[in-house]
Design brief:
Elements: H1 7-19, H2 24-30, H3 35-47, E1 94-100, E2 103-108, H4 113-122
Helix pairs in contact: 1-3
């Protein structure tokens, strides 16, 4: 496949990029050139003995030259509202019900943890 650009055109574009003040990434983005293509041009040109300036350290980061500006609206602090109170479950209400087939186990808040652990291990589980 024939190259889209001549060696001289590639050299001119690389020099334009390096003297633009933009990062290689931003310059390539603005000129619709893949960065991988651009860097292969640089490698080719250096291999052929062309004096291509190195990119600066800051250009290694793909940072836009224009910062994003966001307008913030400052509002007065709103009064804190108390968190909703979740009613506790009374001992007459079932806290947990496990049903396996026709068997049903109801666990209440005041259940003995040791007894619950023994029941669960009998069922093949752990607590």
């Amino acid at each position: 496949m024939r190259s889209r650009f001549t060696k001289q055109q590639k050299f001119d574009m690389v020099m334009e990029c390096r003297s633009s003040g933009l990062s290689d990434y931003m310059w390539c983005k603005q000129h619709d050139i893949q960065t991988s293509t651009f860097y292969s041009w640089v490698k080719q040109l250096k291999r052929d003995g062309a004096n291509v300036p190195d990119r600066t350290y800051a250009e290694a980061y793909h940072v836009d030259t224009k910062p994003d500006i966001v307008k913030l609206e400052i509002v007065d602090e709103l009064p804190m509202e108390p968190a909703p109170v979740i009613p506790s479950i009374t001992s007459t209400q079932c806290a947990l019900e496990i049903t396996i087939g026709k068997a049903s186990i109801k666990v209440f808040n005041d259940a003995n943890p040791k007894l619950l652990s023994q029941v669960m291990s009998c069922l093949g589980g752990r607590l």
